[in-house]
Amino acid sequence: MGLFDFLFGKRKQEVLEAIERGARIIDVRTPQEFKYGYIDGSVNIPLERLNDSAIKKLKKLNAPLVVCCASGMRSASAKGMLIQNGIAEVYNAGGWHKLDRWLNS
């Protein structure tokens, strides 16, 4: 097992465990991207709309969050924003296609 397999395997395990514990999936792609494919049950909050109001609503969920996007760049930004705003348990799944494969394998 290589270093990347170890690192990404660990992320996969953390994300799947969080989902088992009731994590909500937040997809930070644009609405146009989201309408062409998404994970059932995910909530679309585009990164540019991840403002104070949206973050307050996410805090009220009182659940871990899993963020995803197309490639992992926007979800990494979203994770940082959420953590900076007091949401302690946030996981970056990266691209939504990968997360979909993880959930259906």
From TrEMBL:
**Location of the Rhodanese domain:** 19-105
Q: Name one Pfam family in it.
A: Rhodanese
- Name the InterPro entries on file: GlpE_sulfurtransferase (IPR050229), Rhodanese-like_dom (IPR001763), Rhodanese-like_dom_sf (IPR036873)
Q: Which residues form the signal peptide?
A: none
What Gene3D superfamilies does the entry give? Rhodanese-like domain
Under which name does UniProt file this protein?
Rhodanese-like domain-containing protein
